[in-house]
Every structure is written in structure tokens, then in C-alpha cells.
Write a structure and sequence with these properties.
Elements lengths: L6 E5 L4 H12 L3 E6 L6 H6 L2 E4 L5 H8 L4 E4 L11 H21 L4 E5 L24 H18 L4 E6 L1 E3 L7 H9 L11 E2 L1 E3 H13 L7 E4 L5 E2 H12 L11 H14 L10 H5 L10 H7 L7 H14 L4
Parallel strand pairs: 1-2, 1-4, 2-3, 4-5, 5-6, 6-10, 7-9
Antiparallel strand pairs: 8-11
Helix pairs in contact: 1-7, 3-4, 4-5, 6-8, 8-12
The structure holds NADP nicotinamide-adenine-dinucleotide phosphate.
Length: 330
């Protein structure tokens, strides 16, 4: 039997991206350790033979225990627009958790630590396509804490921590549930393109992304660097909706109501719900989905570490639909 080549830690392995990464690492023969929370869906990791360490990223001792003896840490865990969390929780997970990962990496002399950020740290992009050096302009608590976590990690790299940072676009593909609603609405024939859908949208297909993440963990040129890990192509939201519609065999959405009233309604919902501590049914950040433009140049990752996204949006959408259908979701 092939010997495990490396012992690696993946945080966030019960989630979409971390789970796909853990699976790929196991398939290549690595010994994967995952830091998981009690109550999380661990069955897929157990089936893969992943070693589980129970604990929370906000618990420094648990993170340190999970990092013992590993050569690479892939820090993927984050709180990502989950309903009902106060700002302090985002800070504890997306900033405090990064600090614990850095401390654990130092304590255990981990050879490489890879930190997952997001293109969302750039906010709405003025200069298109944007790149790693473009200004930061985070728009909400998720993006603000992801940026602070990234900056903490970058400072640790400046101080000698061997590591690298990657920023994915909107991650999609088999296993993703975040874009499912859009696919369902398009299939039903009602996906309003608020504001016209002319904003640019940049995706990262999961299988290409996990290849890129492993390059960040293993390629010598990745040390001390930050990379955009997006697909090779980007397009308008309207084009993406049309691609999904064509793969589903339905009519492309064209109904384009104005964005203003929707944004006003979202602001009113947030203002009413916040003092009551309830999650608003409509968020301004959901409305921003129809407004903010995101388009990036991935050439730094292609040239420095050989990142090679292979899946076109059309093919990625096709595979995603198949997965939704195979799992009776669509
Ligand atoms: N999805 C996107 O479009 C996108 C785009 C850009 C960047 N990103 C970044 O990519 C990463 C993965 O995103 P994803 O969409 O795959 O996320 P996801 O499916 O929501 O998974 C998040 C993971 O983080 C874990 N986690 C959350 N809070 C934790 C805590 N306190 N302690 C330990 N583990 C905790 C979750 O564990 P449980 O299972 O216990 O909840 C889960 O395994 C994140 O860093 C995110 O910021 C995502």
C-alpha cells in the first residue's frame, strides 16, 4: 500500500471547500487531520479515513493539538454569512481563529501554512480586472473580518512564518449549496435581474480551486505570496444566468426590475430586525449580489505557481446541475 506522503491539517473540512480539499488530499495519499466541531457532519470525513480532532477554531488549545506533527496547515474554516451571529463572533472566528492557527504553526514548526481569504476583501471593484495589489474595500462584517484575518496572517508571514494566502472568487461546483437558490429560480422561470444584471461576477470552480490551494501549500514560489485563485473567465450576472438557463434547457431570464426599491426594502428590513436580534429576511448584502462587480486577473498564480483552471463556466455549471439533480436538489 502507498505510504501517506504528508501529514496535513485542514480546518473547515466539514464545509464545502475544506471537504473537497480534504478528499483530494486523501486521494493523493496524504494523511489528513481535520479540526471539527461537535455536531458537525463528520460522516464524509470518517468515510475518507480522515483523523478527527474535536474542537473549535476559537479554542487555541484545540487548534494546537490538531497541528501537532503536521507539515502543512490549510486554514479554510470561517464564519461565512451564517444567520444570527453578532459581530463579535465573526471577529472571534475570522480573526481570532487565524491567530490560533498562526500560534499553532509556530509552536509546532509547521513547514507551510496556507490561509484562505476571499476576493470580497476588495469590495466593489473600480478597476477591472483587478489583481492582488488592488485596494481593499470590504463591505460588511464578513469581509471586514476576513480582511483583518488576512492582514494578521500577512504580518506573520512578514515576521517569518512560512505561508501563503489565497483569495477565491464565488466558489461553486458539486457540493455547493449557496448558488442552489439561483439555479432553482432560473429553472422555475423567475430570476429577476435586479438592476439589469450587468455587474461582473467571478467564479472559482471547486476542483480547480482545490488544485490551486494545494499549489499554495507545496509550490516553492508560493512562500510569502498572496494569490487570486479565480477561474480564467468572468462575465456579467446576466450571462451567468443565461448559461445556467441554457444548461437547464429553459428560457434565459430577462426580467430586469430596478434595484433601488429592493435596496430600500433591504435597509428597512435590517433596521427593523437588528434591534430585535432576528435575522432579516432580506439583507443589503444579498442585494449587493446584483450590484457589485467582481473581475480579477489570475495571471500571478498562473505564472508563479502553475495554477491552471481547466473548467469553463459552461462546463462547471453543467457539472453543478448534474450534482444537484443526482442529489434530488433541483
Ligand atoms: N463559498 C464562497 O463562495 C467563498 C468565496 C470566497 C472565499 N470563501 C472562503 O472559503 C472558505 C470556505 O468557504 P465555504 O463556502 O467552503 O464554507 P462553508 O461550507 O460554510 O464551511 C465553513 C467551514 O468552517 C467551519 N467553521 C466555522 N466556524 C468554525 C469554528 N468556530 N470552529 C471550527 N470550524 C468552524 C465549518 O464547520 P461546521 O461544519 O462545524 O459549521 C465548516 O467546516 C472560507 O474561509 C470562506 O471565507 C468562500
Amino acid at each position: 500500500m502507498k505510504q501517506p506522503s504528508k501529514r496535513v491539517l485542514v480546518t473547515g473540512a466539514t464545509g464545502f471547500t475544506g471537504g473537497a480539499l480534504a478528499k483530494k488530499l486523501v486521494e493523493r495519499g496524504d494523511h489528513v487531520v481535520a479540526l471539527v466541531r461537535k455536531g458537525a457532519n463528520i460522516a464524509p470525513l470518517e468515510q475518507l479515513g480522515v483523523e478527527l480532532v474535536f474542537g473549535d477554531i476559537t479554542d487555541a488549545d484545540a487548534v494546537s493539538k490538531a497541528a501537532q506533527g503536521v507539515q502543512i496547515i490549510y486554514h479554510i474554516a470561517a464564519v461565512f454569512r451564517t444567520a444570527g451571529h453578532p459581530d463579535e463572533y465573526y471577529e472571534a472566528v475570522n480573526i481570532g481563529g487565524v491567530k490560533h492557527v498562526i500560534d499553532a504553526a509556530r509552536t509546532h514548526n509547521v513547514a507551510r501554512t496556507v490561509h484562505c481569504s476571499t476576493i470580497g476583501v476588495h469590495g466593489d471593484i473600480e478597476e477591472l480586472p483587478s489583481n492582488e495589489e488592488s485596494p481593499f474595500n470590504p463591505g460588511d462584517i464578513y469581509q471586514r473580518t476576513k480582511l483583518a484575518g488576512e492582514q494578521l496572517f500577512a504580518k506573520a508571514m512578514d515576521d517569518g512564518l512560512p505561508g501563503s494566502i489565497f483569495r477565491p472568487g464565488a466558489i461553486y461546483g458539486p457540493g455547493d449549496l449557496r448558488l442552489l437558490k439561483m439555479f432553482k429560480q432560473i429553472k422555475r422561470g423567475f430570476f429577476p435581474l435586479f438592476g439589469g444584471g450587468t455587474n461582473l461576477y467571478h467564479l472559482s470552480y471547486i476542483d480547480d480551486l482545490t488544485d490551486g490551494i494545494i499549489l499554495c501549500g507545496e509550490h516553492p514560489n508560493a512562500l510569502g505570496q498572496r494569490f487570486i485563485l479565480c477561474s480564467n473567465e468572468y462575465g456579467t450576472l446576466k450571462d451567468l444566468a443565461a448559461t445556467i438557463a441554457s444548461q437547464l434547457g429553459v428560457k434565459a431570464p430577462t426580467f430586469a426590475p430596478p434595484i433601488g426599491p429592493l435596496m430600500l426594502a433591504a435597509k428597512a428590513c435590517e433596521a427593523l430586525c437588528r434591534p430585535l436580534g432576528i435575522d432579516p429576511p432580506l439583507h443589503t448584502r444579498r442585494v449587493e449580489f446584483f450590484v457589485k462587480s467582481r473581475a480579477f486577473d489570475n495571471s500571478k498564480a498562473r505564472e508563479m505557481i502553475g495554477y491552471q483552471p481547466k473548467i469553463s463556466t459552461r462546463e462547471g455549471v453543467k457539472r453543478t446541475i448534474k450534482w444537484y439533480q443526482d442529489n434530488d436538489l433541483l
